[in-house]
Each structure stands twice: as structure tokens, then as C-alpha cells.
Amino acid sequence: xxxxxxxxxxxxxxxxxxxxxxxxxxxxxxxxxxxxxxxxxxxxxxxxxxxxxxxxxxxxxxxxxxx
Length: 67
Prior knowledge:
- The model has no long low-confidence stretch (mean pLDDT 91).
- By secondary structure, the protein is an all-alpha fold.
- The chain has helices at 4-11, 15-25, 29-36, 46-51, 58-65.
- It has one domain (4-65).
- The termini are far apart.
């Protein structure tokens, strides 16, 4: 599996951007579905999601993100 640096170089993106995208990849499936359907908590914006230190545990994610 390529590192964030390798992925950024290969795609022409910054490491920061790749790291942010990786955070989204590890969200619980029901959280992703809610966001795509527009059913996320009102205060949960993309900026807030990127600033939040989101846990890997899905139950803890729900609690941290207000689901």
C-alpha cells in the first residue's frame, strides 16, 4: 500500500489533501450514507470533519460526530 506521500505525488495532490481523504475512507458506512443523503448533524460540515480527530472505532465515530 502506498504511503500518503507516494499517493500525493502520484495524483498531483498535496499530502495534506490525501490525508484528509483517508480520514473519510475510514468512516462507518452508515455515517457515509447519512452524509451522502444530507442527514448528517447540522453542525457537521466538511471543515469540521477534517478538523476532528475521528476515532477508527465506528461506535466511537458516531458519538464523536453526533450521530
